Amino acid sequence: MIQTSRRDDGMSDLERVVARDEIRQLAYRYAYAIDARDLDLLVSLFVPDVRVTREASGRAAMKEFFTASLRAIGVSILFVGNHIVDFESATRAKGVVYCRGQIQDGERWIEQAIQYRDTYEKRDGAWLFVKRTHVLWYGVETAERPLAQRPANWPEHHDGRGTVPEDIPSWQSFWAALEGDGGPDGRRSG
Question: What's the rounded mean pLDDT across residues 149-162?
């Protein structure tokens, strides 16, 4: 999966540096889109013909998949760490991304150590995910319940519950679209 750095990909050093940064932005934007529940941004990070299941492909199918997945949890916070990118050509690459996740699962708070195994492709001048596989090192329930704290009212208090993600418009729209479907209490406020 990971190989030593090679330079026979047909790219100049500068092209490789720019491409690597553009690919890393995909991982950062993916984490933001998940946490903000910005599904339009999320699916735009993938190739239009992305394979979602054996039977389903395309961004519309991916949006349905993520809607179902994300309605099952509350707040999520994804921290992107190490990101290795290996180029196969000037338009194709593979990568491994390390990620720490904090996820509200009803009344539980879960911490995860995640590895994403990615395939990227440059289409119409933009790098996109072709495939993204989520692999788990572990997930553990924590004793701390960060969302059960009193409001921080920043900058009045340095600890307590803040306003993110409920103050993000796409988060509000995601849950408003599911109104009546609701989900368990405590997954969102407002």
Answer: 91
